[in-house]
From TrEMBL:
Pfam family, one: Zn_ribbon_PriA
Recorded superkingdom: Bacteria
Binding positions for Zn(2+) 2 per the UniProt entry: C543, C546, C561, C564
Helicase C-terminal domain span: 569-726
Record's function text: Initiates the restart of stalled replication forks, which reloads the replicative helicase on sites other than the origin of replication. Recognizes and binds to abandoned replication forks and remodels them to uncover a helicase loading site. Promotes assembly of the primosome at these replication forks.
Organism: Mucilaginibacter mallensis
InterPro entries registered for this protein in UniProt: DEAD/DEAH_box_helicase_dom (IPR011545), Helicase_ATP-bd (IPR014001), Helicase_C-like (IPR001650), P-loop_NTPase (IPR027417), PriA (IPR005259), PriA_3primeBD (IPR041222), PriA_3primeBD_sf (IPR042115), PriA_C (IPR041236)
One Gene Ontology molecular-function label: ATP binding
Cofactor binding description: Binds 2 zinc ions per subunit.
Top enzyme class: isomerase
Stated name of the protein: Replication restart protein PriA
Keywords: ATP-binding, DNA replication, DNA-binding, Helicase, Hydrolase, Isomerase, Metal-binding, Nucleotide-binding, Primosome, Zinc
Length: 829
């Protein structure tokens, strides 16, 4: 980044600005400032610029100076969009660090960081915002023209609007329309954060008068006895509690929803819809007045004491040990000092009860930021953080990009989660590691929390780089769940297994249902069957774009690719040999749900995976139904392992643990332990000891034994010995290079050449490959991977990255590189 002085300027001096464009280009571009805009330019403001022959982009001003570029003639910038900067100096510093550390371009960081509405470009799509009808008489002529054009054609690009109005300066007009909520920009409007609503009932004040009430009962007892029961039930409940929900009234009276509806229509009852907490607590006072246990108080004191010396502290607390309550106390302390707090969560959509809990405490001081928000909402949160209106921000990994002024504390909950790692597109950053740099930049602290910490964090704690605190007991003295291992092979041999369910699991499910308790079943694969195979010739349908077999989904009746989204009809005749003997191999969540409904026809079964949670509000509906006990058994993928905290879930079934354990990855055992421990932790969280049934073909597997004994330390020490021997993190740093090309033969020669060039600098031991990854073709691009391993002490990782960048650049200047894409991934796994 060029350091331009932000000079005081007179009207006639010529200024130049260096801008960051939202593109994967290696250098920033410099533009000339028109004299009339001299007073408007400032670092962090958005400028509209032309790049290429005719394309317009919104760029961020990164520097101001008086020196014209030497190698090219600077074009004039078109427009300044902001009255004050939308990106802070600290953010720009953070962007440059991310680009440097994760070996990408700062323009790619800008693309990831800014909400789409803040980075308009020629190809950005504009749509009418149907959620906010607007009075068109209030629009100016050009605004009206745009809205009228969108009536005829529902989607226009910025280029279309430039042609429509016959002028280049359309961005300010679009900005005003966006601020008025007339248009939506670029992003498809996705699900908003929806608070949970519940209908509460009050008696019409007219019937508080005893005479009026007697008259009402006289009429109802003769003509509608069920309605009379409902009114009596209301009076009874009102003596015991302040608020009465519609569901409580139905349950207490036995009158049914139709009777309540009729009483509402007669205006006997008055309904009121309110936002309510998803917490187990019945009264908000119970939440506000919670007290920390002795162990929690000790942990809180330990964390606070260690923050005096360490910037990062790891809180290792078993599932349901009350880590969230410690987080709340730390947030309260930080707010009292006037500083901001960022609370990172791996799966924002699954942790709505955390949102509710924090909103009870911090009210309007808390903001929520994640990918399920539409663009209007994201811009609103961005502006409120910039203006210091939010003291606490709760968000997924992208919230590290928000414009914080004074960040005092970052809490990274479930810090081990792979969801914190961005895999595609660049920057391929890990939000946990980025958060540590971000906090350090603001002079703040970081608390990492997990029941199953990542080995890197645990290693850093053991070597005293991080502070360390432990919570070894569940809150309220609740015991850890009982874990029972069941051999699938043994039950198959005895013929006691039904479909994919062992006799032990079926018996435990039936017992839970008899006790009016709930069950969660975990199968880490969605769809109905992973493979369709011909019994005669072993033909298996494959994706036309990717090197993977297609998965059958019974709900659509089609074969799906989970990498590129390709679908095709499921064949009834083998296209290879003409046989009609086609069978499904393996099973996913859809098949588990289907076959369980045959075994337990009276059970209310629901499924939670990527397929059932795509539509608007579908996820919230499932969670609400589970909490309100409208679901007996929930079948799901790894989504069910994160953030679910329900009182009556007492049995957890892991249908096939082997799908996690037998995976060709050096982290397989660590990830398996984390997943099994986290899923197990959903059981028995409210005073009842839960039970976990793990079905496996390998009951003697070391990791399963460690899960039973909850022995994280044994897992850690065993795995670390192997990692040291085979040169893996945390002892070595990894950088993976994926080379992609549409021709596999050309790709092979390109990858061999690049690996050979890297070996000249780093030697054979540090450069592994090239080799094809497990999935060697995605979206018609073939892939070869080169893995580089660098010992932490013997080589400067910054120098190594410089050499890798130079080698890639040199490769890209050769004719051999034509048509290739090279993607570096730092800390890839």
């Amino acid at each position: 980044m060029l350091e331009f002085a932000q000079a005081e300027h007179t009207d006639r001096e010529t200024l130049f600005v260096e801008v960051i464009l939202p593109l994967a280009i290696a250098k920033n571009y410099t533009y000339r400032v028109p004299y009339e805009l001299n007073d408007s330019v400032a670092i962090g403001k958005r400028a509209v610029v032309q790049f290429g022959k005719s394309k317009l982009y919104t760029a961020i001003i990164a520097g101001i100076g008086k020196q014209a570029p030497e190698k090219y003639e600077a074009k004039y910038l078109v427009e300044i969009l902001d009255d004050k900067p939308v990106v802070t100096h600290e953010q720009l510093h953070f962007w440059y660090w991310l680009a440097d550390y994760y070996m990408c371009n700062v323009g790619e960081v800008m693309s990831a960081a800014l909400p789409s509405a803040l980075k308009l470009a020629s190809e950005t799509k504009i749509m009418l915002n149907k959620d906010f009808p607007v009075d068109r008489s209030t629009l100016h002529d050009k605004e009206f023209l745009i809205v009228e054009a969108l009536d005829i054609q529902p989607e226009l690009t910025v280029s279309d609007i430039v042609k429509l109005l016959g002028q280049k300066q359309v961005m300010p007009i679009l900005k005003l329309l966006f601020e008025k909520n007339v248009i939506n920009i670029s992003e498809e409007v996705s699900e908003r954060y929806k608070p949970r609503k519940r209908t509460f009932i009050t008696l019409n004040p007219f019937y508080n008068d005893p005479d009026n009430r007697r008259e009402l009962f006289g009429i109802l007892e003769k003509k509608a006895p069920k309605q009379a029961d409902a009114v009596l039930a209301y009076i009874k409940l009102s003596r015991q509690q302040k608020t009465i929900s519609k569901n409580e009234l139905i349950e207490e009276s036995g009158a049914g929803a139709a009777s309540i509806k009729t009483l509402i229509e007669k205006e006997v009852f008055i309904p009121e819809e309110k936002n309510v907490s998803r917490l187990y607590f019945e009264e908000e006072e119970a939440i506000n007045n919670f007290e920390l246990s002795e162990q929690q108080q000790e942990a809180l004191k330990s964390v606070s004491d260690q923050f005096a010396e360490k910037d990062v502290v790891l809180l290792h607390g078993v599932t349901s040990s009350g880590k969230t309550q410690i987080y709340i106390r730390l947030i309260e302390e930080m707010i009292q000092t006037g500083r901001q707090v960022l609370y990172l969560l791996p799966e924002i959509a699954l942790t709505t009860h955390i949102i509710e809990r924090l909103r009870v405490y911090f009210g309007a001081n808390i903001g929520v930021y994640h990918s399920r928000f539409n663009d209007n909402e994201r811009v609103e949160v961005w502006q409120k953080v910039l203006n210091n209106e939010y003291k606490v921000v709760l968000g997924a990994r992208s919230s590290v990009f928000l414009p914080f002024n004074d960040l005092g504390l970052i809490i990274v909950d479930e810090e081990h989660e792979t969801s914190y790692k961005q895999f595609d597109p660049a920057p391929r950053y890990n939000a946990r590691d980025a958060a540590i740099f971000l906090a350090n930049m603001h002079g703040g602290k970081v608390l990492l929390g997990s029941a199953t910490p990542s080995f890197e964090s645990y290693y850093n704690a053991r070597t005293h780089k991080y502070g360390f605190t432990e919570l070894s007991e569940r809150f309220g003295g609740v015991e850890m769940p009982l874990v029972e291992i069941v051999s699938i092979a043994e039950e198959t041999k005895k013929k006691t297994i039904q479909s994919h369910f062992t006799s032990v699991l079926i018996a435990d499910i039936q017992q839970a249902l008899a006790n009016k308790e709930q069950v969660i079943l975990f199968q880490n694969r969605r769809g109905y069957a992973p493979v369709l195979m011909c019994k005669m010739c072993a033909y298996t349908p494959k994706c036309i774009n990717c090197d993977v077999s297609l998965t059958f989904h019974k709900s659509s009746g089609k074969l799906h690719c989970h990498y590129c989204g390709y679908k095709e009809d499921s064949p009834t005749i083998c296209p290879a040999c003409g046989s009609t003997h086609l069978e499904y191999k393996g099973f996913g969540t859809e098949k588990v749900e289907d076959e369980l409904s045959l075994i337990l026809p009276d059970a209310r079964i629901a499924r939670m995976d990527l397929d059932t949670t795509r539509s608007r509000n579908s996820l919230q509906t499932i969670l609400n139904n589970l909490e309100e006990k409208k679901i007996d058994i929930l079948v799901g993928t790894q989504m069910v392992a994160k953030g679910l905290d329900f009182a009556d879930v007492t049995v957890i079934g892991i249908i096939n643990a082997d799908s996690l354990l037998k995976f060709p990855d050096y982290r397989a055992n660590e990830r398996s332990f984390q997943m099994l421990a986290q899923v197990s932790g959903r059981a028995g969280r409210r005073g009842k000891q839960g039970k976990v049934v793990i079905q496996t073909y390998d009951p003697g597997h070391r990791v399963i034994k460690q899960v039973i004994e909850n022995d994280y330390k044994d897992l850690y020490f065993t795995e670390m010995t192997e990692r040291k021997s085979f040169k893996y993190p945390p002892f070595y740093r990894l950088i993976n290079l994926d080379i992609k090309h549409k021709d596999p033969e050309v790709l092979y020669h390109q990858a061999i050449y690049l690996a050979k060039e890297l070996r000249k600098h780093f030697g054979d031991e540090r450069v592994i490959g090239p080799q094809a990854p497990l999935v060697s073709r995605i979206r018609n691009f073939y892939i070869q991977s080169i893995l580089l391993k660098f010992e932490k002490d013997a080589i400067s990782i910054n120098k190594a990255k410089t050499v890798i960048r130079d080698t890639i650049t040199q490769f890209q200047t050769t004719k051999l590189s034509k048509g290739s894409i090279v993607q570096p991934d730092v800390d890839p796994y």
